[in-house]
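Hi Q.,

Before the meeting this afternoon, I wanted you to have the S-adenosylmethionine prediction in hand. No need to reply - just skim if you have a minute. The sequence and ligand are here:
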Amino acid sequence: MKQLSLFNEPIEKIPVTPKGYKGLAGFHKYWGKKPPEAWSFLIENLTKEKDLILDPFLGSGLIAKKCADLNRRFVGFDINPFSIELTKLCLDLPDYTKLKKALDILKEKIKPDIDLLYMTSTGEIITHILWKGNKIDRLWEKTGRKRIELALPADEVSKLENFVSKAMPIKKKLNLFDNSRINTRKDISLKDLFTSRALVATDKLILSFSRHNGNVHRALMLILTASLGQMSNMVFAVTRRGKTKGTETEKIEVGSWVIGYWRPEQHFEINAWNCFENKANKLLKAVRDTDGGNIVKISNSFGDFTDSRNTSYLKVGDSEVLLQDIPDNTVKLILTDPPHGDRIPYLELSELWNTFLGFEADFDNELVVSDAKGRNKDTDQYNRKLSAIFADCVRVLEPQGFLAVMFNARSSEHWKSLHTLEAMSEMEYVGCYPMNYSAGSVIQDNRKGGLISDYVLLYGKQIAYVLRKKINQQFGVIDNWSAEYPKVGNQQ
Ligand SMILES: C[S@@+](CC[C@H](N)C(=O)[O-])C[C@H]1O[C@@H](n2cnc3c(N)ncnc32)[C@H](O)[C@@H]1O
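Predicted structure with the ligand bound:
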């Protein structure tokens, strides 16, 4: 039997296990990023073209992009300024030829300057430096796929070790907290995270970006933030691979920056230009393959919203405040993925990117449970704030509108705010399904503090019994769809 959507059109897609982050979705890391396929089914089956969709916890902005591609109007908020910048990139991609030209000019004019920072007395350009504490252990030059080890005289190594520069391109100070869970201290500065050489290279890049503006400038800055992790002192070295299988090798492989601010004793310093170019190529390819996508008008206020299909209103700020500007009963579907209890301190982790972009983050109003000393981000304030945001979501939702929440927390305490939704007389819990990811799609999350899978919980506003029954039948095509509530508890 053919399944019908709510609007009596055949359902063509059902959620599958998302394959991972490809193209634009894979260009920039974002903590807790959800693959875009995760949302398609809900958008296509609970809304029509031009309907208004809201996400008060935007993150990477992949939901916004999906909505734009499907001609839905969209409102997105996030307290993280970096998140809005990344979303703007997704919705307003630069022209491929313009971006390529900007990158070609950088390669011609800036790369030679950066090369000088890594050049040996015999003209090799060092691509990888292995540090042990504050001493250089080994060095390589990579040409093509081959990494050739360099043997430099001691005085040259010492010069590289002691490279100092007064140049400090970034005016904003890194604003971190004492938080051992993500290896930070209040007094950490950029000089702890990067060598002076890498900072000088970023200085040269940022200065040269200033000749561009609009979406090309934004793209260049985000290529830089995307490459910061690999440019930093946070890239671990993989040694003794094969130890458990008895095939141990002497080879030292380059790891990657994972999550948090851990600076391993033994770490790699990678040539900053190479890190930048690698990400630039990724974005360039994604822009070429995306073929521009739909043209989206990005407005700065809800009042600017036009009736045209592709308008998105994006704003940096606290959703508890920003939601107040949205009139009652205007949104057809809310799709959201709030911070899940204590799993990811978004602003602390994004502080590196925000610092390079010159953005001050509003730590006070972040919705999170954090271990950081002095932040006072406990479970009670988290539940109070999330309940308030959900209450406003219900107010702005149209009658017969839907709210889908993606959630995952081990502690039942962190589920309390969802129960406030269930307690509201206007809201009906419809059902849920587990969101399974492929191995490649979970790497942007540490899964610590989470259940094995995320859940998508669906609620309807003032929906009649018949509609609820109908949806339950339709959503039955989804693997493991259930009208029951997910089993949660303190699963430690
Ligand atoms: C789970 S993430 C969203 C991830 C997103 N679904 C994605 O695929 O990238 C939750 C987001 O909520 C944001 N956030 C935290 N407190 C907020 C607040 N008070 N108002 C708005 N956004 C907030 C965080 O910055 C983070 O980007």
